[in-house]
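Handout, page 2. Input:
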Amino acid sequence: MIKLKAVQIASTTLSSLKNTAWILFDRIFRMTSSLIVGLWLAQYFGPEKYGLWSYAFLIPSILTPIVNLGLTNIIINKVGYLHQNERKKLLLTSFILRLTLAIIAYTFLNSLIIWAEKDVLLKTLILYTSSNLLVIPFEVIDLHFQTTNNAVKSIKAKSSAFIVGTAIKLYFLLNGAGIESFAYTIIIENILSVTLLIINYLEEKRSKVEFNFQPEFAKNLLKDSFPIMISELLIYLYMRLDQYMIKYLSGNEELGLYSAAQKLSESWYFIAGALTTSFLPNIISQWNSNKELFYSKYQKLLNSLAIIAIMISIIVSLSSPIIENIIFRGKFNGVGLILSIHIWTGIPVFLGVGSNTLFILNNLQKSILVRSFFGIAINLSLNLLLIPHFGAVGASIATLCSQIFTSYVINYLYKNTREIFLMQTVALTFLLKLKVRTIFK
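Output:
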């Protein structure tokens, strides 16, 4: 019996590691490709037009947390230990709720833009970029594959669409296409991605999907997810508020500089999500049976996230002048300083992503909401103070300060989140302890 249990644990761990490897490979591939093409686009458009391009993605993305409905963490936390029928019900209900909101959000946004926006080019770009909202419901299929350690199925689908979209962008870059042409690739990639995800899911099930929607279950799901959705919306606002404010307080050129630096800085954030998503099902399995083992494993996850974020911040910050000179070739003057500040935001972001499940498992969703309100208030105040005088540099400082407070410091101020603060502190000092141990060996 003991040997059988050991074999099962080893098999689960191996499956989890393989799943993580696939997810990391996919994210690294996407990050590298997106970074190369994105920086090429920045040089191709120049700061002002690149600022407009970035703003076209920014407008529809404000509705993303609403369409997501805060269901991602709930699915990840629950789907791993549910029976097959309950799993189906959770995934199907989440899909239908998201699809309904996606259609409403897409229709509302484009109606509003057609009526209110005077810039014809921006209006056209938003029409295409807002199609990203319609893809969100189908990410439920991706979550299904990830939480069942079968990420390769969704990776093949999404990567194939991504490769086609990237190839078309490269063709346009080499042939001097206009900015509207690049917007077409968004539609193509989205349609292909959704189609392949559906095909892979149906092949796995080998049967028709039963649309047995239960309103009572949906109501309870919404009740659990609503605080998370509001929190994610507020988090989005204080992470993206700076871009809106830069555009209206400093103009498209400053927004282009900030967006270029932000693209480099935030391209690493996928690591936090990938590691957390992959290892959480195995960690959460200990929640009800062995709390001590659960917290021990969770601490290791936070330690890993902190080490990775700190190392990335140091390397990128020190090399930011080289990045400005070599990658941007003098077209984006000042982007190196912006990057050297903004990159440190990754540390609180990594710890925040890693800690979210602790809030949910301890029924502290309201705490997430409170810290998000504080975050947006701090970010708004600092942006109003700093952007008029320092432009994109001021926005970077505001974002860093608000993230440190919201993802880390505020956890100390409340008794029920102080344990999370202590775990985050252990993670932040873990690398220092390793160095001390090495010195005294």
